[in-house]
Amino acid sequence: MHTQLPLWIDTIQTAADTRQLDDLKASLMGKTGTVTLALKNLGQLSIDEKKAKGAEINAIRDALIAAFTAKFDALTTEAINKKLSAEAVDITLPTRHAVGSQNSIGRIHTLTSLMLEIKDFFYKRGFTFAEGPEVEDEWHNFDALNIPSHHPARQNHDTFYIKTDSLSNMNEEPSQLPHSHLLRTHTSTVQIRALAKEKPPLRLISFGRVYRSDDLDATHTPMFHQIEGLVLDKGIHMGHLKGLIREFCSTLFGVSNVPVRFRPSFFPFTEPSAEVDIACSRKDGKLMIGEGGDWLELLGCGMVHPNVLTNCGVDPAEYQGFAFGIGLERLCMLKNGIIDIRQCYEGDDAWLKHFGSFSF
Ligand code: DAH
Fold first, then answer.
1. Under 8 Å between Cβ of 130 and 206
2. Residue at a domain's end among 71, 86, 101
3. I want to staple 136 with a disulfide (CB 3.0 to 4.6 A). Which of 7, 12, 184, 310 is the partner?
4. Alpha helices in 142-280 (DSSP H)
5. What are 38-50's pLDDT values in tens digits?
6. How far apart are CA 321 and CA 303, in angstroms?
C-alpha cells in the first residue's frame, strides 16, 4: 500500500477544488474507503503481521490526513482571496434590479417548498404537526424505540455523541464516555416525545434535521432532513398504511396510481416493517419516475412495535398504528433531478434561482 502513497499525495495536492478533495477523502478514508478497509482487514492477520502492517497503514493514514488538511486550508484560502478580489463592490450604487421585480426578491428553497407540500398533503388528511429537540437523549433516540444498547442498529446509526461536563479527560476514547446526550439520528424520536404529551387516537407528522457521522459526498451529508409520520387508533392495520402511502406517492409525483412496491424489511420499532419502492425507468440516462420496470427506494415504514407502545404507556391490545420515515433530501433530489446533495446547502444564487420557487 505504501507504494501508492506518493500517487495519492500527488492527487490530493493537485485537486482542483474542495469537492474533488471530499470525494477523494471518501474513497480513501470513508466508510468503505481503501485505507479504512485495509485497517478493518488487519483483524485477519497474525499478531506479528498485524503489528507491522498496522503501523504501516496508520502511518499512511496520518500522512493522508496531514495532506488533506493542508490542501483543504490552501484551497479555502485561495477561494476566499479570489472572491475578495473579484467582489470589490461599490456599496454606494443603487441596486441593479427594479424594486419589486422577480429578480430582486428571494425564493423559497426547494427543500422548504417540498416540506410545505408534504405538510399540506397530511394536514388535509387530519394530521397535526409535532416537534422534538435536535439534541436528544438515548432513551428517546434508541431505548424507547426498541433499540437497546447491545442492538447492532445503534452502531449503524453513526451517532454524534455529546461530551458531558462530567468529562475530566478529553482524550478518552469516545466509546468510554458516558453516552447520555446525542444529536438525534432520526425523527422517530418525535413519536416518543408526542406520546409523552398526547394519548391515542392521534395522527401526526413531523420533520426536521437529523445528524449522522457519515461520509461527505454526492449522496451523504452529516446533516439532513427526515419526515416522520405516526397514526395510532383502534383497529389500524397495514391496509391503512398502504393506502395512505400509495396516495402520498401519487400526489407527490403527480402520477395517478403510481406503481408502488412494499418490500419486507427490518426496523426495531416496527413489526412488520417494509421499505417502499416506486417504479422508475432510465431512458437515455434520464430518470423517469412512475413508470417502467425498475424500482427506487423511497421510504421506510411499518406497524408500530408493541414494545414501543408499552414503553410509552399505551396498551398495544387496545391501540395499534403505523409509522413511516422519509429522507427529505433524497425525495427532493429524485423529484428535481438533483445529482449532488451538497448543492442543497451551498446557497448558490444561480442554483437557488433555478430550483427555488415563489410559492409551493
Ligand atoms: N427511523 C428510520 C431511519 O432513520 C426511518 C423509519 C423507518 C421511520 C420506519 C419510521 C419507520 O417511522 O416506521 O432510518
1. yes
2. 86
3. 184
4. 152-156, 189-197, 238-253
5. 988 988 888 888 8
6. 6
> What's the domain range around 13?
2-86
Mutate to test the pocket of ligand 1, among 301, 303, 329 (most ligand atoms within 8 A of CB): 301
The atom number, within ligand 1, closest to the CA of 304 reads 13
16 and 157 together in one domain: no
How far does the centroid of ligand 1 lie from the alpha carbon of residue 134, in Å? 16
The number of distinct structural domains making up the chain is 2
pLDDT, one tens digit per residue, over 35-91 is 999 988 988 888 888 888 989 999 999 999 999 999 999 999 998 998 888 887 777
Q: Is the peptide bond before 264 cis (omega within 30 degrees of 0)?
A: no
How far is the C-alpha of 264 from the C-alpha of 94, rounded, in Å? 60
Of these ranges, 36-40, 144-148, 154-158, the one predicted with the greatest mean pLDDT is 144-148
Classify residue 347 as left (phi > 0), alpha (psi -120 to 50) or beta.
left
One-letter amino acid of 98: A
